[in-house]
Design goal:
The complex is a heterodimer of chains A (330) and B (316).
Chain A (H helix, E strand, L loop, with lengths): L3 E14 L2 E14 L3 E5 L6 H9 L7 E8 L2 E2 L5 H7 L4 E4 L3 H4 L6 H12 L4 H14 L5 H4 L9 H13 L5 E5 L7 H18 L2 E6 L2 H5 L4 E6 L2 E7 H6 L4 H8 L50 E2 L6 E2 L14
Parallel strand pairs in A: 3-8, 3-9, 6-7, 7-8
Antiparallel strand pairs in A: 1-2, 1-4, 4-5, 9-10, 10-12, 11-12
Helix pairs in contact in A: 4-5, 5-7, 7-8
Chain B lengths: L1 H28 L4 H6 L5 H11 L5 H13 L13 H36 L4 H14 L3 H15 L15 H35 L2 H8 L4 H29 L3 H6 L5 H10 L3 H29 L1 H4 L4
The chains are: A alpha/beta (330), B mainly alpha (316).
InterPro entries (chain B): BPD_transp_1_N, MetI-like, MetI-like_sf
Family (chain B): Belongs to the binding-protein-dependent transport system permease family.
Keywords (chain B): Cell membrane, Membrane, Transmembrane, Transmembrane helix, Transport
Chain lengths: 330, 316
């Protein structure tokens, strides 16, 4: 344990909409230790991307954020734009979901790498070029020298995401946030990109947050998992503990919704019926209650708080946690 | 890239042929027989018929067209039957005036429009943005002759800073030439900048919403670099288009402005040719101006390719 690098304290993100305030992130607490990986899992619209934008201080202009985002001893929500700028790209980096749109189409790969390096590190052009070539080679791009002069559209999606990762790694960040880094890619490329991220994370001893809707993505690649639902963290545990015994029915349902290799052909997937609650009209009770097969009594009237289970690291927000050992990776 | 240029050049040929046909047909359809115009209304029918025969006017239109085209391909656009001046001489005498006016007007228009557009896009929705956007809208609805008169009144009549009308060739006295050119160019620019501003502003606002701008911010780049490199470059395509169209349009001369400020440009040559039924000059000038317009658009296409690599590589 080498200390807390990032701690999100009581983060609340609200977006004004014509139908009222949309609470995208609802009192979230999270910590990431230096050099560790956290997976944030949840279905579309659960607030995981808004949470990542809140950490990066890249929320839409109209959004309101309260709470604290402590990174490396500083509260990012109170930092001046100039200090924030010096931090972003330097010690706090991000990889976005869609490499087709996250690289500037009219600038060369080289420009987009070198500008980042020269912004934060005192390197001249030749040194920055050299570093760019090394980075491209490190993320598995063949003929890196020639790539510098190429434009994003000349590369495949997987290659572009590798470039985006190279950009993120360019200044040796302390924390890398990967927001659905493989969702927009072919299935065959997904594992490669995830393995690349995991390898670079270990090699550079950086902390990493992987945001995904796919529990399978975080399974072997994270130290801790936080499951989000309707803007709240509903279960948080070290990855092995979570897969050994998940307590929150939502986590169980998420896992059950993954296709299994050993299932008989034509077995219907147990999808989670219904849909998440309207984020502009928060429910009084547990937000998962309407879709939960264990819901009863208090679930519809009181909001369960995230609290400790048997072990200090395993937290969940549920009145009727799953008691029996969930058959982890059935 | 070479293939791209060649393909674009090939497109130009049919366009130019179509333009030449249209020009010729429209000129032929104008009311008033050329022979009558030359001979005056005292002419006898026999004299008219003889002249028509001499000029080939009694031949079918397509024959006359090919004759005209044949001469043009040899560099002979014909000559005015009034002054005896060839079309090429008349045009080359006046093109420097119109060209200089057009360049100055575009430069001033861009110098006003581009910085305002960038400032507005960066602060979209602010009081400044709303003020500039609505003034641009107001400026769009001011006709050229009105702003010309107001500018003359202010700078020439009241302040005596600049001459109201007249022209000195740039080779004779560059300073005096510029003094004569400033007001007409400014008049045109006042009509140009709102279009430039509005187009670039909305393109930049759209670009600033893109993922790659979020990533540029996440990379910790300076706001100026995000604005001028990451947002401006991909937003400049439409700007190039309308600048190209403006320039193409002004190649044909700014008829009203050239008339008000008494500048001997292409616009006044054309108007004069229409008043005096000088069809040879009219046809030739219209064809040359149209060709200039087409070539300008070709240059715009080339600039696209320079600005956007996706077009260059045929991916767009």
């Amino acid at each position: 344990m080498s200390g807390v690098l990032l701690s999100v304290e009581d983060a609340l993100v609200e977006l004004p909409t014509p139908r009222g305030n949309l609470r995208a992130v609802d009192h979230v607490d999270l910590t990431v230790d230096a050099g560790r990986t956290l997976g944030i899992v949840g279905e579309s619209g659960c607030g995981k991307t808004m949470l990542s934008r809140a950490i990066l201080q890249l929320l839409p202009k109209k959004a309101r954020l309260s709470g604290r985002v402590m990174f490396d001893g500083q509260d990012l929500t109170r930092l001046s734009p100039e200090k924030l700028r010096k931090l972003r790209g330097r010690s706090l980096a991000v990889v976005f979901q869609d490499p087709m749109t996250s690289l500037n189409p009219v600038l060369t790969i080289g420009t987009q790498l070198i500008e980042t390096i020269q912004e934060h590190l005192a390197l001249d052009l030749a040194e920055a070029r050299k570093r760019s070539v090394e980075l491209l080679a490190a993320v598995g791009i063949p003929a890196p020298e020639q790539r510098l002069a190429q434009y994003p559209h000349q590369l495949s999606g997987g290659m572009r995401q590798r470039v985006a990762i190279a950009v993120a790694l360019s200044c040796e960040p302390k924390l890398l946030i990967a927001d659905e880094p493989t969702t927009a890619l072919d299935v065959t490329i997904q594992a490669q990109i995830l393995d690349l991220l995991a390898r670079e994370q270990r090699r550079r001893h950086m902390a990493m947050i992987i945001i995904t809707h796919d529990l399978g993505v975080v399974a072997g690649r994270t130290d801790e998992v936080a499951v989000m639902y309707a803007g709240r963290v509903v279960e948080r545990a070290p990855t092995p503990a979570l897969f050994k015994q998940m307590r929150m029915p939502y986590t169980e349902a998420l896992l059950a919704a993954l296709p299994k290799l050993d299932a008989a052909p034509h077995t219907p997937l147990p999808a989670i019926s219904g849909r998440p609650p309207d984020p502009t009209r928060p429910l009084k009770g547990c937000s998962f209650a309407p879709r939960c097969r264990y819901a009863a009594g208090r679930c519809n009237t009181d909001k369960p708080v995230l609290s400790r289970a048997e072990t200090a690291e395993h937290l969940y927000a549920c009145f009727h946690p799953i008691e029996t050992t969930a058959s982890g990776r059935a | 890239m070479l293939f791209f240029v060649a393909r674009k050049l090939l497109y130009i040929v049919p366009v130019l042929i179509a333009v030449s046909i249209l020009t010729f047909v429209i000129a032929s359809l104008l009311p008033g027989d050329l022979a009558y115009v030359i001979l005056g209304d005292q002419a006898t029918p026999e004299k008219v018929a003889a002249l028509r025969h001499d000029m080939g006017l009694d031949e079918p239109i397509w024959l006359r067209y090919f004759g005209w085209l044949w001469h043009i391909l040899q560099g002979d656009f014909g000559r005015s039957f009034r002054t005896g001046q060839t079309v090429l001489d008349a045009v080359s005498e006046r093109i420097p005036v119109s060209f200089e006016l057009m360049m100055l007007a575009e430069l001033i228009g861009l110098a006003i429009g581009v910085p305002l557009a960038i400032a507005c896009a960066a602060k979209a929705g602010s009081a400044f943005d709303r003020f500039v956007t609505s003034s641009a809208f107001g400026m769009l609805s001011v006709p050229t002759f009105l702003s010309a008169i107001l500018l003359i009144y202010l700078f020439a009549v009241e302040l005596h800073w600049l001459p109201a009308t007249g022209y000195v060739p740039i080779a004779e006295d560059p300073i005096a030439n510029l003094r004569f050119m400033v007001l007409p160019a400014l008049t045109l620019a006042l009509a140009e900048w709102p279009g430039i501003m509005r187009v670039l502003r909305s393109d930049m606002i759209a670009a600033l919403q893109e993922d790659y701008i979020a990533l540029a911010k996440a990379k910790g780049l300076k706001p100026s670099r995000i604005l001028f490199v990451h947002a401006l470059k991909p937003s400049s395509l439409t700007l190039v288009t309308i600048t190209g169209i403006n320039i193409g349009r002004l190649i044909g001369g700014a008829v009203i402005v050239e008339t008000i400020f008494a500048l001997p440009g292409i616009g006044r040559l054309l108007v004069g040719a229409i008043y005096t039924r000088d069809l040879i000059i009219l046809q030739g000038v219209v064809l040359l101006v149209a060709a200039g317009f087409v070539i300008m658009n070709f240059i715009v296409d080339m600039l696209y390719a320079v600005l956007d690599p996706r077009i260059r590589h045929g991916h767009a």
